[in-house]
Amino acid sequence: MSDKQYKITIISVGPGASDLITLRGQEAINQQDIIIGFQESLDTFASHKETYCPDRMRTGTLEYIEQNPDRKVGVLVSGDAGFFSLAKFIIQKFGRDSVEVIPGVSSVSAGFAQIKNSWQDFRFKSVKQEENDLTELGHDTILLCDRMNTPEKILQDNPDLKDKFDITVMKDISLETEQIFYDPDESFNSSRVLIVLEKKLTDR
After folding, report:
1. Whether 139 and 76 share a structural domain
2. Is 25 helix (H, G, I), strand (E, B) or coil?
């Protein structure tokens, strides 16, 4: 951790729709010297600001912040900053005193609102860039996916999931391309995919 006093604001932008960022989040964007994030988020939420989209998001963001300690840097993260986001790595490197975190609407809360279900008893597992062996899974679980670990691949690698769980796949929640499928075998070219595994009633 550096002794320099950085000025970093991690801004949660929600699941992607322009009307699901909070007022505090939008105000925070307006106060920064530069905004870092994925291009889609920059175009949606910060088109009026100076922006930077690193080729490698984690390392590029950390390097830019470290090289520009005098700039007020805003970092856009999807969903809520406290939930499987870049915020963890920024805080680890630069310290809590250098960081302000703006909360937001998570993709999980937005998705469960769409399927009209409660998620308080679900567990979470990220299969992003990880092996997706789920043979020991025995609880209601929400899987966060990526373009490599798609619903199709996960179900191919773990065929017993269909016997144990009712499966809902939510893609691009809150966006115009939003889709919700039940027991699907399809693959999606999207990094915004959640798989909801809910134990069948006969197994409860």
Report:
1. no
2. helix
* pTM, entire model: 0.86
One-letter amino acid at 20 equals L
Residues 54 and 61: beta-carbon distance below 8 Å: yes
Query: What whole-number distance in Å separates Cα of residue 196 and Cα of residue 181?
Result: 10
Query: pLDDT tens digits for 94-136?
Result: 999 999 999 999 999 999 999 999 999 999 988 865 566 787 7
Total domains, the chain: 2
Contact (CB, 8 A) for 51 and 42: yes
Tell me the CA end-to-end span of the chain in Å, nearest whole number: 47
Quick one: 93 and 113 in the same domain?
no
The answer as to whether 2 is a domain residue is: no
Strands 51-52, 72-77: parallel, antiparallel or unpaired by DSSP? unpaired
Structure tokens at 49: 């600001």
